[in-house]
Design goal:
Number of strands: 0
Low-confidence stretches: 448-472
Oligomer: single chain
Distance between the termini: 26 Å
Number of domains: 2
Number of helices: 20
CATH class of the largest domain: Mainly Alpha
Largest sheet: none
Order of helices and strands: HHHHHHHHHHHHHHHHHHHH
Mean pLDDT: 82
Shape: globular
CATH architecture of the largest domain: Up-down Bundle
Strand content: under 5%
Structural class: mainly alpha
CATH topology of the largest domain: Growth Hormone, Chain: A
Radius of gyration: 21 Å
Helix content: over 70%
Length: 472
């Protein structure tokens, strides 16, 4: 569990350590806020594409083996970003880092295969909490590194953690005996990538060309058309990247919709709070603090995620995982709404962030458990991988929309207080919708997964056949 936690933490830190460094990156890479945001968005889009691929490869060739591959790619991308001072080379390194998006679904699948049955929900809850904790901790570490050394060390930290976790995984994590033979749907992955990137480009440039411009609407419409074509393509692919029939089942579909909306709210706040805190006091709303101080404002919220993540797994195992998911979405929306109304003092930021982050901790831990309950054994990696993909898409949308709203409100290059209010309010509405969607997720009879060795027959007494999965 410790090794898997380090692997997951490396990826989670990589999502947000660059956020406090955005002003430094803008200066060092000679770009504006819209351009530098691609260091975050490129990472998240790559994670969205590679997450299901790595999940499928893990089911095919071994989850530990693919986890090592994901960690090595993450470390390599970190090195590429660390050694360059060119914006698009840094973005390219971040894209390679995004291959590490497969880390979370692979960790979930290893836990499901290797842990005692009664500890699976708690283990997955803790791993899911790390996604939020790492996001908050990344803001603190990123600020410290930018203030004390340079932004390059943000990437060197990722390289060291990824490499260490890869070695430890190879040496100490057992390989799962559960395999699902299949072919890799590279064509589906490429079409999916195009469908995701086009709307994100439109959102990133909307403040320059207008939300109602032909360019913005054309890119968004084109992306949605490509995604619709991807669904049809997957339905006619013998061994698709994603089983559309399984994803269309109400419990899976509604869980993924909720995941998208919570991810949007979470990353919207991760962009907004540090930017607001680091703004000069002359703006009338900023606190004029450095990057380290801005990150520290989110530490109490990260602790709330740490406490409520495992609790979500315990509550979900007793009353159903949709309960903590619905509660989490509602709390996240409430915290963001309070931030929209009142963000003029550091105490308000800390207090309302705790409400928001507590909700995220509850929600993030419930999502993969709902997915695992709703799908059969052989689809665990694929289904949790797609759920992580959806989370990355929501995170990308949240970060780009928040950055675009701030940029659109700017006067003389400085965002206005109204811009922050509107951006927080948009994230609040989206997160509240997540809570509403979670309420209507139908409850399913969970698939009872025995430990992996028993499922493949290795635990059966000599001469006795193993129980079939349905019998278990």
């Amino acid at each position: 569990m410790l090794i898997l936690a380090v692997a997951a933490l490396a990826f989670a830190l990589g999502q947000t350590t660059v956020v406090p460094a955005i002003p430094a990156l803008m200066e060092a890479l000679h770009t504006d806020a819209s351009g530098v945001t691609w260091t975050l968005t490129g990472y998240l889009v790559a994670a969205a594409v590679f997450t299901p691929l790595l999940g499928r490869l893990g089911d095919m060739y071994g989850k530990r083996r693919m986890l090592v591959v994901a960690l090595v790619a993450f470390a390599a991308g970190s090195v590429l970003s660390a050694v360059s001072a060119n914006l698009w080379i840094v973005v390219a390194g971040r894209v390679v880092q995004g291959v590490g998006g497969g880390i979370f679904p692979l960790c979930f699948a290893i836990i499901r295969d290797e842990f005692p049955r009664e500890r699976v929900a708690r283990g997955i809850g803790l791993m899911s909490a790390i996604a939020g904790i790492g996001g908050g901790l990344g803001l603190v570490l990123g600020g410290v590194l930018v203030d004390q050394v340079s932004y390059h060390w943000i990437f060197w930290l990722g390289a060291m953690m990824g490499a260490a976790a890869a070695v430890a995984t190879e040496l100490f994590v057992p390989e799962s005996p559960v395999r699902t033979p299949a072919k890799l749907d590279v064509r589906g992955a490429l079409v999916l990538a195009v469908g995701l990137v086009l709307p994100l480009i439109a959102i990133a440039q909307a403040h320059e060309v207008g939300w109602g411009s032909a360019r913005t609407l054309g890119l968004i419409g084109g992306g949605l058309a490509v995604l619709a074509a991807w669904v049809v393509l997957e339905q006619h692919t013998p061994q698709p990247l994603a089983d559309i029939a399984a994803l269309a089942k109400p419990p899976v579909l509604l869980t993924n919709v909720t995941t998208l909306l919570v991810g949007f709210g979470m990353f919207g706040s991760f962009i907004l709070i540090p930017t607001l805190a680091e703004s000069p006091t002359s703006t009338g709303y900023g606190f004029g603090v450095d990057a380290t101080h801005a990150g520290l404002l989110l530490v109490p919220g990260s602790l709330a995620m740490l406490l409520l993540g495992p609790l979500s797994g315990i509550v979900g195992s007793r009353v159903g995982n949709k309960v903590p998911l619905a509660a989490g979405g509602t709390l996240t929306g409430l915290g963001l709404a309070l931030l929209a109304v009142a963000h003029g003092g550091q105490a308000e930021i800390i207090g309302f962030s705790i409400v928001m982050s507590g909700g995220i901790g509850l929600a993030y831990a419930a999502m993969p458990n709902l997915i695992i309950d709703a799908v059969p054994l052989q689809q665990t990696g694929e289904a949790t991988g797609f759920n992580a993909l959806v989370r990355s898409v929501g995170s990308s949308l949240g970060s780009q929309v928040s950055a675009t709203v701030l940029a659109a409100s700017a006067v003389g290059g400085i965002p206005t207080d109204a811009g922050f209010t509107h951006a927080f309010a948009i994230s609040a509405v989206v997160a509240a919708c997540a809570g509403a969607v979670a309420v209507v997720i139908p409850r399913v009879r969970a698939h009872v997964h025995a430990p992996a060795l028993a499922e493949v027959g290795a635990a059966s007494p000599l001469g006795e056949p193993a129980l079939a999965h349905d019998e278990i």
